[in-house]
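Researcher: Quick one. two chains, 661 residues in total.
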Amino acid sequence: MNVTDLDLLCEELTTRNIYSEYINKYASVNTIKKNIKKFAKSYWKTSSHNIMNILMNDSKNLTDTDDVKEKKFSSDYVYLFNKNGEFSSLNNESNIKIDVSKLSNKKNQNLDKFVDTYLYNNLESLIIPFVLLKNIINISIPDNCNLAVPLKLINYISKSNLISSNYINIDIGKNSNLFIYQYNQTNVHSINSNIININLHENSQLEYTNLQNESLSTLSFQNIFVNQISNSTFTFNNVGLGGNFLFNNVNVKQIDENNNFITRWIDICSGNQKIYDKANVEHRGNNGSSLENFKGIYYNNASRILDNMVYVNKNAQNIKSHQLSENLVISNNTYIKILPAMKIYSDNIQCTHGVVIDKINKNILFYMCARGMNRRIANDIIIVSFIKKLFDDIGHKSIKNDIWYFLKAKLQTILI
Amino acid sequence: MNLCVKNLHVTIGKENILNGINLTIPSGEVHAIMGPNGSGKSTLAMVLAGSSNYNIKSGSILLNNKELIHMSPNERASEGLFLAFQNPIEIPGVNNAYFLRTIIKAHKKYNKMSIVDITSLIESYMLKLGISSDFLKRDVNDCFSGGEKKRNEIIQMMILEPKFSILDEIDSGLDIDALKFVSISIGNFLKTNPSSSILLVTHYSRLFKYIKPVKIHILIGGKIVTSGDMNLVKQLETKGYQHIS
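Model:
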């Protein structure tokens, strides 16, 4: 890509949507262009397609030729269906209130608040998702609501060269409990971006599972910002299977006391996939906990960076925080960079972090072969068992079954 | 004849570990190998099972007249060789039920059996050995005590019914009850599989209270220096290995 193309891209991005209204408040045009160029350069080095084509194609009016009706929706979920950037709420007979609106020049209160809180400090992560933004979705769960049926948010891009970019605000009322399952599937050369802002009120619980099953030429940005008020539990499961470039950024703020955060990440990277995961936890209140477990399996020329930070505020006492990153390397051509970090300004805490990067354990392989298994089967079992423990902890059966189906499909393409 | 090892020389790097082992164990017999630490007992067990950590310089390993030297570990297992590991490996994420089903299915004599039949076979062994079905739900050797791990090795041996078993320090780390369980199970195995033979690798004679080996071989410096009957063990207990070498 030459300089002119980059300038064109920046021009295109910076004149889109409500960019000027919202973002100019925090960054000059030059800063924004600098960030876009920085991203564009790093991305194009690894990508086989041109982001300009996506932007140009996306701006054309597309006629909908796919038959969505043929897709079967089960009663196992309440659906929020996003096809090619158009949202519809299906079979919602629950207490989930879903409000979908197109991004316009009219100010949105939620989005305003989000911009004021996060944009300045997360400019690098949010700049592209923000300038591509199209939809605003508000999901609210009233107080004292226990929903056994999960909400399934489907991001489905059926055509090539399309952008789906959304801001989703989720409010979980006091004493409420919910499972959300975000499923991402895309066609070639598309961009799937979501900024998700979650507010967990007192005594609420949310288990959020994100399955990334995008096409291997998709660019995906998932920015998740969570505020835990008090006595809440937030569980985040991330299963990364598809996508050419995945950027996941999870920011959790425990504002008051007795909040728990649990996260489980399973990334199976193959081909030329590039994954950049960021997880940031901030403990501000007493008696908080964060338990983070990241597992990755690496094939071919895949690469992954995990940037993981735990911050304990000086006023936060009795904090328990544990980070563990385990990485199984199958190919010699993979690139892995794990950056665990802790900033601790309080005395009364228990914090640990650890990273393991290794190949398949030869002793386990020999043990299994000595029992009669051939090397190929033993190898496959070891790989599956590596992620199984984490997968088993996913809290809802329907979600687990779904995830297993796609995990199996991905494994079948890469196991020997 | 079951196992016949001839002039086996093995090295790790430049270091000679086994220096010409000759060992014959006929069908239906139990033999034992004893020796001081570092004499090469466990190396012999691992080499027989096909570990790739060692270089075989020369020699042959025949099991029922079939040469094993160029066979992979799973091919040797299929031929009826079983190694009970001194330190059984933990496999988190793979439960015993799945592991047992997979290894049973991998063996020639069971490979046409349905999963239902394999499951009932496993359950019948659990019942026979008085082991709770919860054991099957646990991951292979994961968070097992030393005794449980050894017991698991014996369960696998009993189910697979190998022609030749090497039990590498099966008695180490066992309390009296666990030792009794393991010994009685081996005894029962021999009764139901009279043509199978066993090589016990051990430091202590306490296992011989329950299982009587026909022959004891003393391994020192990677070589069998002498072989004999139970009287040899008595000599060892009073005079130690120094006297023998």
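Chain B has a mean pLDDT of 92.
Researcher: Thanks, that's what I needed.
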